[in-house]
Design a protein that fits this description.
With 629 residues, the chain is an alpha/beta fold. It is built from 20 helices and 14 strands. The protein has a six-stranded mixed beta sheet, sandwiched between helices. Strands 2-1-4-14 form a four-stranded antiparallel beta sheet. Strand 8 and strand 9 form a beta hairpin. The longest helix has 39 residues. The C terminus is likely disordered.
């Protein structure tokens, strides 16, 4: 059972009308419920309020619990808002397997859903190459991934061919037949009458009617004859005069562009009338017209059906048959006052005035598995690593031609002209992409633009980016050494005496660049900011640190490990002094100090932005509570 009570959006400015105003309705299990309304009527805003993606007032219960009270939302509510929020270079199977880690379901569930939605043969197809129909199938598979009880879909059949639309509604009916709840929005009244068990009509963000599907078809839809003629006024007068003479209930509505809508007649009768009076007819077709009511003017929550005609019918319709039968009673039903829209129970004022705060999406239930599939699910990662390796080896070969070049610089492919070696830039780029792409293609979010700042997700990204940076750094050194041995021989290659210090410095440099790019992209929500933060370390921060560390009158920290060992109890082994000195030497280097300073600032900025979001939520909650009181 889905119950929406008193949903109201926050008005953007004082005096402007809210997109959704005191909307109350319910969707029952075992039924498909259509939220019907013209474009701009507030359907999408209502769905986002239910899912707590936008701020406002009201409450929505999914089987008795609001969204923020559900431990694992993906297993309770399946959501489809817009297109698939996935990287266009990712495959359909890779996208679903990545989302399996989000929902905490076995990876085999991805192949089951590909089979269910008819994409079993297109699992290796890139998302960016999918057609609109295939994209909607993949989006529906993403919504069904956690086997949810409730489906909330925003205009899922928009732009689909009739065959694709029939398949989609068949799948929704099958989900409802298993006891699930289905709520989807649509602007097509004929589609709602054909596919929904219950139709909730809204206009201007307010409830207009809540009806059974049969009552909706009988009271809101009626047949008509669409006519196009250059003599629309004369034909309308003739048809009306003959209908009065024959005492038949015929209504003629004149539309723009020489079009007429005739209710209570048939194509044959209109054609005979036009032929007798010598009036040319350019189009003659049967249509089902929507006579949905306008919004009521009495109270926001009133569900009375005034029956006033609001919007013209969809012009797409089959042509008239050669010999249609006479118009039945349904053809003369105006829809006004017919049927009894279901009354909606109004919620009490304190309950419907509950503030709805905008909530970010939850992090994945399996962060490490999610991050690994996200990182290696596209070719960008492999391409960057291959380019970095190739450039580093090429630079090492060129640097080794100079016999006076130090061996560590040669193996690291770090000429003096470059502020950073290629491996450090590549690690920073991979780190920036790991968080920047989350905001560009927010696969974790039910709606676009919301990415969680969960500690588990951040730790997973830090661990995975550091591991990739270490692997890339070791690969560059080993491949460069083997290439130099092949090109120049092995006589001049030797292990430096301070190899441990060099290895720690090398790993710390690459990991620090990776984390700097990751944190900067997480703070500023764009990949470019992460890359800029990495490049700013040697260009801007290192010169400032050098002024502090190498300035006149600077005292050395020689003997610090021994002094620390005297203060500690129990005493650590003397071998620990060597590692402490090693760490102090790495941090004391200008580049190491600059990286440590940059990482500290970025961590503080990341925490500050997270706390700022919580403070904003508390202020919104306080404002909502004051309005409710």
């Amino acid at each position: 059972m889905l119950q929406a009570i008193g949903l109201t959006t926050s008005a953007p400015r004082r005096g402007l009308r809210a997109a959704v105003d005191d909307l109350t309705f319910e969707a029952r299990p075992g039924h498909v419920t259509a939220l019907l309304g013209a474009p701009g009527s507030g359907k999408t805003a209502a769905l986002r309020l239910m899912l707590e993606l936008d701020p406002g007032r009201g409450v929505t219960y999914f089987r008795g619990r609001p969204m923020h009270r559900i431990p694992h939302p993906a297993r309770e509510v399946g959501v489809l808002l817009g297109d698939v929020p996935g990287h266009p270079a990712r495959t359909a199977r890779g996208q679903l397997r990545m989302l399996c880690a989000v929902a905490g379901v076995p990876v085999a569930r991805a192949d089951e859903l590909l089979e269910l939605v008819g994409l079993a043969g297109l699992g290796d197809q890139r998302i960016g190459a999918l057609s609109l129909g295939m994209d909607r199938r993949l989006a529906l598979a993403s919504a069904l991934l956690g086997d949810p009880h409730t489906l909330v879909l925003d205009d899922p059949a928009e732009g689909l061919a009739p065959r694709e639309g029939s398949w989609l509604h068949g799948l929704l009916q099958a989900h409802a037949a298993r006891g699930g709840t289905v709520l989807y929005s649509t602007a097509d009244p004929k589609e709602a009458a054909r596919a929904a068990d219950r139709v909730v009509t809204i206009d201007g963000g307010r409830l207009v009617a809540d009806q059974d599907g049969g009552d909706f078809s009988r009271t809101r839809l009626r047949p008509r004859v669409a006519v196009r003629t250059p003599h629309a006024a004369r034909l309308a007068a003739v048809v009306s005069r003959e209908a009065r003479a024959a005492r038949r209930s015929v209504e003629v509505v004149t539309e723009t562009g020489g079009r007429l809508a005739v209710y209570g007649s048939t194509c044959a009768e209109i054609g005979d009338t036009a032929f007798r009076h010598g009036l040319p007819v350019h189009r003659l077709a049967d249509e089902i017209g929507d006579t949905g009511p306008t919004a009521p003017q009495n109270s926001p929550g009133d569900s009375t059906d005034p029956g006033a005609s609001k919007s013209p019918a969809d012009p797409a319709s089959p042509a008239c048959p050669a010999d249609p039968g006479p118009a039945g009673p349904a053809g003369r039903d105006s829809g006004a006052g017919a049927g009894d829209p279901r009354p909606v129970t109004r919620a009490s004022a304190p309950e419907s005035a509950l503030p709805i705060r905008r909530r970010s999406a939850r992090g994945p239930l399996q962060p490490l598995r999610y991050e690994l599939r996200r990182l290696f699910g596209v070719r960008t990662t492999t391409l960057i690593m291959a380019v970095v390796l190739a450039v580093s080896v090429g630079l090492s070969v060129l640097l080794a031609r100079n016999a006076h070049a130090p061996l560590p610089k040669v193996l690291a492919a770090w000429p003096s002209l470059l502020p950073l070696p290629p491996v450090a830039v590549g690690a920073g780029l991979l780190g920036a992409l790991s968080f920047g792409d989350e905001f560009r293609y927010p696969a974790l979010a039910a709606g676009r633009g919301t990415v969680p700042r969960r500690l588990g997700l951040l730790l997973a990204k830090l661990v995975v980016s550091a591991s990739v940076a270490v692997v890339l750094a070791l690969a560059v050194v080993l491949v460069s050494a083997e290439t130099l041995r092949l090109v120049y021989g092995h006589d001049w290659l030797h292990v430096p005496p301070n190899s441990a210090s060099l290895a720690v410095s090398w790993v710390a440099l690459t990991v620090g660049c990776a984390w700097a790019g990751l944190l900067a992209a997480g703070v500023f929500r764009v990949t470019t900011a992460g890359v800029a933060a990495v490049l700013a370390v040697p260009v801007l921060v290192v010169p400032l640190v050098q002024l502090v560390l190498t300035g006149p009158g600077v005292r050395p920290v020689t003997g610090l490990p021994a002094r620390l060992r005297e203060l500690m109890w129990p005493r650590w082994p003397h071998e620990t002094d060597r590692w402490i000195a090693l760490v102090v030497g790495v941090v004391g280097h200008p580049v190491g100090a600059a990286l440590a300073l940059s990482l500290s600032v970025l961590v503080c900025a990341y925490l500050f932005t997270g706390l700022q979001g919580r403070a904003r939520w508390r202020s919104q909650r306080a404002a909502g509570s004051s309005q409710a009181s």
